[in-house]
Design a protein that fits this description.
7 strands; single chain; globular; Methyltransf_11; Rossmann fold; alpha/beta; seven-stranded mixed sheet; transferase; 6 helices
């Protein structure tokens, strides 16, 4: 049994706990501001997350598939099972792809993004949800990583790192948002009763220290500019420019 499978299984188990549910509900709210404005034929979510929270519920795209990245599929009734680094889709066939915390628990995140870029249609949309290493959540990971506790046992990637990968793959980051400014104080605390002023203050004054982020990227299309044919018009040549015949 591979390591990424075990990590993904443990992470999905953690998402069912109060702190994980809090994270998913915030991310669902963030997606509600984006998905209704995206159109197409096919929407794919790579990685099931929870039985309680449907991240794709606000999308108007009719054909939606939740693809589990391994054989464990109790989280969200996946419609397809596959390796995430070798997607079972033809190139340029998917309109929107959502990656909820997949990169943190896979050994080769760049290869996953390469596969996503391959299957996206031109001008297709990629949405990545991740955890910020430069935050309270990242600080918790620093102390708890060696204890192999979730979600701290994954590898957190910064927004700058994700953007650099996207640029190399021809994906343009067009929008991002930051959220989750409350520290992860423990699963026994009723986080839903905490005031929202920390979120408001964080978004306004210190967005770079957010625990979570969302980034939207578009697959760029290289458009060839037509060559102006006038450059080869022989009539523009001056007769006087030709050499005179020698007597």
């Amino acid at each position: 049994m591979n390591t990424s499978y075990l990590l993904r299984r443990d992470f999905c188990t953690w998402l069912e706990k109060p702190l994980g549910q809090r994270l998913l509900k915030i991310e669902q709210a963030e997606l509600e501001g984006i998905l209704p404005n995206l159109f197409g034929y096919h929407l794919i979510q790579l990685g099931a997350v929870s039985k309680e929270v449907d991240l794709l519920s606000s999308s108007c795209i009719w054909h939606q598939v939740v693809l589990e990245v391994d054989i464990w599929s109790e989280a969200q009734s996946p419609g397809l099972l596959s390796r995430v680094d070798a997607l079972p889709f033809a190139s340029a066939t998917v309109d929107v792809i959502v990656l909820p915390h997949v990169l943190e628990y896979e050994p080769n995140p760049y290869q996953i993004l390469r596969e996503v870029q391959r299957v996206l249609v031109p001008e297709g949309t990629l949405i990545i949800l991740g955890l910020n290493p430069w935050s309270f959540w990242g600080l918790w990971r620093f102390f708890l990583y060696r204890h192999k506790q979730m979600p701290w046992y994954g590898r957190f990637y910064s927004l700058a790192c994700i953007r650099s990968w996207l640029t190399l793959l021809g994906l343009e980051a067009v929008k991002s948002s930051r959220f989750l400014f409350c520290p992860p104080l423990g699963q026994s605390i009723r986080l839903e009763q905490k005031p929202h002023f920390l979120e408001d203050i964080g978004r306004r004054w210190c967005p770079f220290f957010a625990g979570g982020y969302l980034i939207v990227a578009k697959k760029q299309v290289v458009r060839l500019s037509p060559v102006d044919a006038r450059w080869c018009d022989n009539s523009s040549l001056e007769i006087s420019s030709l050499a005179e015949p020698v007597a």
